[in-house]
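#lab-general

N.A. 3:47 PM
ok so I finally got the sequence cleaned up, no stray characters, all 141 residues accounted for. can someone with queue access submit it? mine expired

B.Y. 3:52 PM
send it over

N.A. 3:53 PM
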Amino acid sequence: MGYIILACFGIVIAMAGGVYLARLLYYKKFGVTAKAEVMNVNEIKRRKGFLLNNVMKVGRYADCYTHTIKYDVGGKSYEEQDKAGYTQPLKVGSTHLILCDPKDPSKFKFEEDVTRHITIAAVLVAMAVVFAVRFIYAYIK
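B.Y. 4:20 PM
back already:
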């Protein structure tokens, strides 16, 4: 019974990774490629940690950077803020390739991030499938 439960966990993880991989492949295949220029960099500081009975604070500041970028798609100019938080800021004035959603060009992802995440998601799905097959085989045998 334990083998079936572990195999189900592997199947669920493989399905979740497959959905994420499908979304990334949609951007890669149908996304509109545009050249974007970084217009502004914003630093976001968040306090991470916990408070112990109002006596002791344990934690640190977590910094991330969001960028306002400007790009042209289909004759329209967009100036949007990215949703990803990066640990290192991009230089103001630098240009990067982005992939825009063909239905809503205000949604975009950086092309190098999409390529990297496709590789990571594919490895995750493959490992989850191997995990599930291993426990299904152990249950059957």
